[in-house]
Amino acid sequence: MRRHRMLAATVLLAALAVPAAAQQPADDPVAAMKAGKELFEKNCRLCHGLDRSLATNRDAAAWSQIVKRMVAYGTPLNAAQRPLVTRYLATRSSFAVKCGSCHEATRVVGDKPVVRDWKALAQRMAGHVKELEKQGKAPSGGGFAPAELEDIAALLQAVLPSD
Description:
Elements: H1 2-16, H2 29-44, H3 50-54, H4 60-73, H5 82-99, H6 105-109, H7 118-134, H8 146-159
Helix pairs in contact: 2-5, 2-8, 4-5, 5-8, 7-8
């Protein structure tokens, strides 16, 4: 019984520790990515290492099911927070799979990240993919949807240092 109370107290404290940024609506993609990353890092490490979750790449539907299952196991994410975590994880996976299929992520962000127009960079890379598809050098259908480009640009802006 004491163990259950300790677990309940831990879950309650973790939920209360979520900053106001994580409570923002998802209309701002950068704020959504920052909130999703923060929620993921704070809540998922309660039970296991973060590298375990980040070792595989999945689409949004698969991440949604995993997040739902983790909530059933006791992860303190409310209904408004779950989509933020799912969106962050799915976008991170999309970046790793689609951008990493051509080059290392360090080539995208460089050794010393600087403030960039990430949306313009994402759109330029999507143009390269379309061109490679036309030339038969890239698999057809591997391009980016507009919302996916916006999320990848928001992810890069959210996770990279801005100095």
